[in-house]
Amino acid sequence: MKTAVFALFYLAGAIGAYILRIPSLKLNARAQKPEERMSQKQRMQKEGTLLSVLMIFWFLAAQVLPILYLTTNWFARFDFRLPDVFYYAGLVIFGAALWLLRRAHNDLARSWSAVVQIKRDQQLITEGIYAHMRHPIYSAHLLWGAAQVLLIHNWFCGFLGFALIVTIMVLRIPREEKLLLNQYGEAYRSYMQSTGALIPRCR
């Protein structure tokens, strides 16, 4: 019973993450230039086949599997038990993920994109949360994955989403850093030296 309750908390947080993203989606839709609009096929070509497939699987692992976990007994054999304190730690971590996600989207404004690209007239954002870390949206998703592990005590439904998002970040961040270095040159190199990628750098 307790496991089901915290799995529901997880799903509520996951839905909340998408709701928090709605203002950024609307802002980008209004500000987007015609040449920046891409079809789903173009998005997949931009990301590459491997990353596109991994992100689809991550969506299924982070959204669909928890629903199946709650509504079926298909994955009961993979259940494990941890002390209740881990549930509460998961709630705190998911709360931090949602706060960080919202803060990063607010600071990035129309410079945010769902795919790795540089928009026309895009400025390098180094203020707000970006003064401390270069990829706070990715950090938020890693916290989200950790919260899934702590709130859904199941080797398959809890860990798969975290494993996939870690893999996506390992592949995606270097591509994004290379693109930004090509675009902004020494300005971005200097920014890299003063900030951490996923956590603030100790100074």
TrEMBL record:
NAD as UniProt keyword: no
GO BP term, example: methylation
Location(s) in or outside the cell: Membrane
Superkingdom: Bacteria
Primary location group: membrane
Pfam families found in the cross-reference section: ICMT
Keywords: Membrane, Methyltransferase, Transferase, Transmembrane, Transmembrane helix
One of the record's GO cellular component terms: membrane
Organism: Pelolinea submarina
Record membrane topology: Multi-pass membrane protein
Protein's UniProt name: Protein-S-isoprenylcysteine O-methyltransferase Ste14
Transmembrane intervals: 6-27, 48-70, 85-101, 142-171
Molecular function, one GO term: protein C-terminal S-isoprenylcysteine carboxyl O-methyltransferase activity
